[in-house]
Specification:
The structure is a single chain. The protein folds into two domains: 34-246, 2-enoyl-CoA Hydratase, Chain A, domain 1 (Alpha-Beta Complex), CATH 3.90.226.10; 251-295, Lyase 2-enoyl-coa Hydratase, Chain  A, domain 2 (Orthogonal Bundle), CATH 1.10.12. Helices cover 47% and strands 14% of the residues. The protein has helices at 4-9, 20-27, 64-79, 115-138, 154-160, 188-196, 199-208, 214-220, 230-245, 249-263, 267-281, 285-295; strands at residues 14-15, 18-19, 39-45, 48-53, 85-90, 143-147, 150-152, 164-168, 172-174, 212-213, 225-227. The protein is globular, with a radius of gyration of 20 Å. The relative contact order is 0.10. The structure holds ligand LH2PNOKW. Isomerization of 3-trans,5-cis-dienoyl-CoA to 2-trans,4-trans-dienoyl-CoA. One of its GO terms (cellular component) is mitochondrion.
Length: 305
């Protein structure tokens, strides 16, 4: 039988897409380990982390550091035993201006004469860009986007990978990619139609780059709440994250995993998946604690993961 030491030593073992060595590094991380060039990471509430896009002077345009650091940051958060919910926000005047066109465009051009060889070399780069947002969806902890003012291009890809979206009254959104000659390729086209449940509207917005405002975003189901300003939307997002964090992390994370799985599978496959999941997770101490706390009219206490 494998000992814990053997398991921890085996870097080929992976949990939620991350290696055991990364998990171990994260246990030792502490907040000082969350130092990034493009992100500011804080713990504003118990069990809640806030990841802020932090290049306000460049309108939080997504530079090369950002595309790499989001993956590092969310993998670390997935492995944090005491974090139960995450808020994503933007520093400064707007949420984000999307792709940093000065810094990133050059990495999308590949040297060489043969188009097929160039394409094969470019494919992993595009997939790595996709991972930057897929990491949010693949992680089991709920992520709430708090959008203020502009959310452009890659910003829509980012928030589409989040679980819940709130915005300010002055928020506006734009699937901007066709305006810079691209088919959006990091998640909007795949996730947004399922979020809003209106394929016709999703296509209209993606084909035209039409800017749409907070009210329309709410009407279509992209956001679930509108708040007067940046401070108010952040407060609401943090309150929501705290409420989620007060629940059993086993129950909440199972719920996210099941909802993401069910979105992409038949009803029967989703039911089979959650039956298998719960055949283990129903045996959690959290079930006993949640039921007892309810009967005793007290707040439940759930231990860290
Ligand atoms: C495989 C790739 C996958 C990803 C694809 C993603 C694609 C996309 O995201 S497409 C969308 C690209 N973004 C844009 O087209 C938006 C461009 N920016 C704007 O329209 C305006 O900046 C905005 C309306 C968002 C805000 O206007 P505001 O007046 O508040 O700011 P500015 O004076 O325009 O900008 C201030 C400084 O920020 C720099 N900046 C803004 N956006 C970007 C950007 N996307 N990339 C790089 N830099 C950006 C701007 O140059 C100013 O810098 P400085 O001149 O040094 O002060």
């Amino acid at each position: 039988m494998a000992t814990l030491g053997m398991l921890l030593g085996a870097t080929r073992h992976r949990v939620a897409g991350i290696s055991i060595s990364q998990v171990r590094a994260t246990f030792q991380r502490g907040m000082s380990g969350y130092q990034f060039e493009s992100l500011a990471v804080t713990r504003p509430r118990d069990h809640v982390m806030q990841v802020e896009l932090n290049r306000p002077e460049k309108r939080n345009a997504m530079n090369r550091a950002f595309w790499r650091e989001m993956v590092e940051c969310f993998q670390a958060i997935t492995a944090e035993p005491d974090v139960r919910a995450v808020v994503v926000s933007g520093a400064g005047k707007i949420f984000t201006a999307g792709l940093d066109m000065g810094d990133v465009m050059s990495s999308l051009f590949v040297e060489g004469a043969d188009i097929a060889r160039k394409a094969i070399r470019l494919t992993p780069t595009i997939k790595a860009f996709q991972d930057t947002f897929s990491v949010i969806e693949k992680g089991p902890k709920p992520v709430i986007a708090a959008v203020h003012s502009a959310c452009v291009g890659g910003g829509v890809d980012l928030i589409s990978a989040c679980d819940i979206r709130l915005c300010t009254q002055d928020a506006w959104f734009q699937i901007k990619e066709v305006d810079i000659g691209l088919a959006a390729d990091v998640g909007t086209l795949q996730r947004l139609p399922k979020i809003i449940g209106n394929d016709s509207l999703a296509r209209e917005l993606a084909f035209t780059s039409r800017r749409f405002e907070a009210e329309e975003a709410k009407q279509m189901g992209l956001v679930s709440g509108i708040y007067p300003d940046r401070a108010a939307v952040l407060e609401a997002a943090l309150d929501l994250a705290s409420t989620i964090a007060s629940k059993s992390p086993i129950a909440v994370q199972g719920t996210k995993v099941s909802m993401v799985y069910s979105r992409d599978h038949s009803v029967q496959e989703g039911l089979d998946h959650v039956a298998l999941w719960n055949s283990t997770m129903l045996q959690s101490e959290d079930v006993v604690e949640a039921v007892q706390a309810g009967m005793q009219k007290r707040k439940p206490e759930f231990s860290k993961l």
